[in-house]
Amino acid sequence: MASKGGLGARDRLVLLLITMVELVVFLDTTVLNVALPSIGSDLGLDESGLGWVTNAYLLAFGGFMLLGGRTADMLGPRRVFAAGLTVFTVASALAGFATTPAILITARALQGLGAAVVIPAQLALLATTFTEPAARNRAFGVWSAMGAAGAAIGTAVGGPLTDLFGWPSIFLINLPVGVLALAFVRVLPPDPTQSFLAVRRLDVPGAITGTAALLIIGYAIGALGDESTRPLAGILLVTGLALLAGFVLLEARSTHPLMPLRLFTIRQVSGSAAVNALVGAAHVPTFALLALYLQNTQHYSPTSSGLAVLPVAAVNIIVSRSLIPYALDRLGAWRVLAVGLGLQALAMAWFARLPEHGSYMIDVLPGAVLLGIGLPAAFVGVTVPAVTSVDKADTGIAAGIVNTAQRVGSGIGVTVVLLLADMVARQSTAADAYRTGLNVAFAVAAALAATGAVLTVALLRTGPVPVSEPKSEASAAVHD
Q: How many helices (H) and strands (E) does the chain have?
């Protein structure tokens, strides 16, 4: 148990273990971007095949998260965390030693499956370990830093690793982290006494229908960005939405639903899911747009463009360990979330004015710093209300719902924003039409973040806590 105002030695070890894994999981969403040409050359993959190396991870990550969350509630988060981490680590080894495209793509899908199981279990463990509000705010602040930093660090280290050690190294770096984390998994809080027979209560029809719906919708959204696959994408999108509707009907009738619909009557859960979709839709395309600007208009090398976003990671780690716990204590999660999204909107608006011949210090760095502050604030602010407003038996699935929303939002955001950039560039008659398209896309990302800030105030706003009365755990859950 965390002591008031600080974390005990065991709690610090728990937090280190969870956040170390968090960093690696999110690092793998971006680390291979720079390595794709080398992978294609070695394994004989064309652009379409290389797309699957990326998408296999992202699709499985988003598609299986609801299932991972409910399994964590049924079998216990420590067991499920260990199982998911084992799958992720073994899959990383398989990817690092892959000799054929089929093996690599399969390994990436298994990595995504492991990540989808690990993330909801992590959040359930944090919510049940750090119950004292100040300790909880510190723990979620550090956790949010690792998630937000992972994507930026992955972008930065992918190039140097590939240049120095070859593309397998971007997967093999996961092995020491995974093995070390598994060795210390017993420091995590023990699971409640329950039998593995509890899995017999799993809503199998719902699990199949819901997972299939998310996988198909995720693939269809990505395929919309390619003219050659757009007709098929439309058919698959309709199919996925029909399966999603069927999933909702099944959940309404199930005795032990995979995703209890009653959770959506809790404003902190439904509101957090809606806002988190916008968090994903706004920030994920921004990293891609920034890389395109730096490489295609400023002529940075892939490695240099990756290193250019390192300030995002550095700033968010510093802010998460210092300012965010303080802000959570005094402002509450919804205000931190609104401010975080507001800062992201400012950062993206700054990028929307990037010139044809820009200066890194003047035109890029200020936006990167704002993004570095805003990202972890949004990550923690959108997570805390959902996982602290439900019973312990539902923390895993609540985390799964909120994080699935971000994955779906990310897919939609990347597809729509990059398509828009391409359309504007094609229709513009300006000499720097390509940059104009990127500027418009940044502006749209800024609008998405600003919309998220407005929705936060509308859906997650709570009244002030009386200063004269100490907050109980129930009060903390509602007001934070």
A: 19, 0
How far apart, in whole angstroms, are the C-alpha atoms of residue 235 and residue 176?
43
- Dihedral sign from CA coordinates of 288, 289, 292, 293: negative
Structure tokens at 228: 């050659």
Helix (H) or strand (E) run with residue 394 in it: none
Helix (H) or strand (E) holding 7: none
Q: Hey, how many other C-beta atoms are within 10 angstroms of the C-beta on 200? A: 10
Q: Is 48 exposed, middle or buried (0-12, 13-18, 19+ CB in 10 A)?
A: exposed
Please give the class, per CATH, of domain 9-202+258-479.
mainly alpha
CA distance 212 to 200: 20
- Per-residue pLDDT of the chain (480 residues), as tens digits, is 444 445 677 888 888 899 888 888 888 877 887 787 888 889 988 766 777 888 888 888 888 988 888 888 888 899 999 999 999 999 999 999 999 999 999 999 999 999 999 999 998 898 888 888 888 888 887 887 777 677 777 877 887 888 888 899 999 999 999 999 999 999 898 887 665 556 667 788 888 898 999 889 888 887 877 777 788 888 999 999 999 999 999 999 988 888 889 999 999 999 999 999 999 999 888 888 888 888 888 988 877 887 888 888 888 888 877 888 888 888 888 999 999 999 999 999 999 999 988 899 999 999 999 998 998 889 888 888 888 888 887 888 898 899 889 888 888 888 888 888 888 888 877 767 889 999 999 999 999 999 999 999 999 887 554 333 333 343 343 333
- Residue 61 has φ and ψ, to the nearest 5°, of -60, -50
Question: Residues 120, 124, 126, 132: what is their CA dihedral angle, to the nearest 10 degrees?
Answer: 150
Rounded Cα gap, residues 406 and 273, in angstroms:
7
Each domain of the chain, given as residue ranges in start order, spans 9-202+258-479, 203-257
Query: Which residues contact residue 359 at a Cβ distance below 8 angstroms, ignoring those fewer than 6 apart?
Result: none
DSSP string for residues in 83-151? HHHHHHHHHHHHHHT--SHHHHHHHHHHHHHHHHHHHHHHHHHHHHH--SHHHHHHHHHHHHHHHHHHH
